[in-house]
Write a structure and sequence with these properties.
Blueprint (H helix, E strand, L loop, with lengths): L2 E5 L3 H15 L2 E5 L2 H10 L4 E5 L7 H11 L5 E5 L4 H9 L4 E4 L4 H29 L9 H13 L6 E4 L6 H10 L8 E5 L8 H6 L16 H4 L4 E5 L6 H13 L1 E3 L6 E3 L3 E6 L3 H6 L5 H7 L2 E4 L10 H16 L5 E2 L1 H9 L6 H15 L4 E2 L6 H4 L15 H19 L4 H7 L5 H10 L11
Helix pairs in contact: 1-5, 2-3, 13-15, 17-18, 18-19
The structure holds adenosine-5'-triphosphate and magnesium ion (MG).
Amino acid sequence: MTLVLVVDDVAPLAEQYAYDLKRMGGYEVLTAGDGRRALELLAGAPVDCVILDLEMPGMDGLEVLRALERKGSPVPVIVYTGTGSYDRCTEAIRLGAYGFIDKAEPMPRVVHEIETALERRRLRSEVSTLRRQLGRETSLVGSSAAMVQLREMIARVAPVPSAVLVTGESGTGKELVARDLHRFGPHPSGPFVPINCAALPESLVESELFGHERGAFTGALATRKGAFEAAERGTLFLDEIGELPLPAQAKLLRVLEDRQITRLGGNRPVAVDARIVAATNRDLDAEIAAGRFREDLYFRLNVHPIRVPPLRDRVSDVPALADQFVTGICARFGLRKKKMAPEALELLMRHDWRRNNVRELRNAVERMIIAADGDTIQAGHVPVEVRTSGKVADGPGAAGRSFQDLKAEAERRILIEALERNGGHVSRTAQELGLADHASLLKIMRRLNIRRADPGVS
Ligand SMILES: Nc1ncnc2c1ncn2[C@@H]1O[C@H](COP(=O)(O)OP(=O)(O)OP(=O)(O)O)[C@@H](O)[C@H]1O
Ligand SMILES: [Mg+2]
């Protein structure tokens, strides 16, 4: 039943109104004698519409409206006034009141006014539901057979609360898949909490995941919830799970088995109801064989495996992806949307994108947009390593250039590739390249003028 709240400091008037509204509109009616009481009732009762007197001692109607505006209250308010002060009524409308009526207005008109207000609120909420549903559309571009299969798999697995393990090469879209699993899951409006296991210092992994009580360790100045608690009624995305140190793997396994955590330094178990999605670009079988990943944890996580196909296995998606990136990047740079010449697209489709898949394609497109002065992106704007599939020296770019230039370019490419492989992680890249430490890598990067924000170096 519709619940109307009448706010008027003159009690007999409010009572009379309430009586008439019950009789003529069939509403349930509450009354409040002042602004404060009105706000209290609004906070506690499912009020559908408010009839609000503007002139009240203490907190007047305009102040009530301001308070409701601050709270973002969706309840429609109709102000009524006995003084006929036009200015105050306009001010009320400006503050979000739905309409105003005169206290002397016949009751059927008032009922009509309430009904229109309710109808408008209903439409509003319908629009926002539709918007939300539209927002639920996938952000994964591509209609290749592999992508269609991937989307079907996401749709099938998303509503199930068990853990999902998303695997695939670097830059294939694992994070987008994780977000879709959340979006199409049972609690799309709940939190999505991403944790990059590779970026967590080993000493902090456990407190990040499970939280800690105040004083649990030096520096734990206050109690803090961990990612598991933050993801309550939502999704915890454990990215790069293959990088989780072994002791943390053991703890994680226990949590998944018991469905409860205990904060560091605490003794009270807290139930875990977050959906767990883990992702890795590592070959976990090989990691298990090498003793770096626990097999029992692997089986816990791998209830529903989703493999994201590499871009070279879905070349037919390249045009749609490139188009989406051109649109997005041009808009971000404030440029008119550039066209892509068929020959340029052809080159993009021939490249194998092994290094960083969709992310690599996006970075290449960004460089091409910058390189193209005019409205059209030509084949000549395709980055040399893409045009020649990584073979710098025999590419068209090699002719007439000095040895020094070519050498620097090759070095640049080696570094950018290695950085990309390591997600821009400087220490890990240095290690991979056999450099002494991250400072040596930074020095070379400076010499070659590679900034960490360069495309490909995230
Ligand atoms: N199918 C797709 N449609 C549109 N954009 C995509 C698609 N796949 C990936 N991308 C984009 O490519 C980039 C890389 O995707 P994402 O971060 O999800 O990859 P990842 O597999 O998690 O990579 P990594 O292993 O390096 O963490 C992002 O900018 C993402 O928006
Ligand atoms: Mg990722």
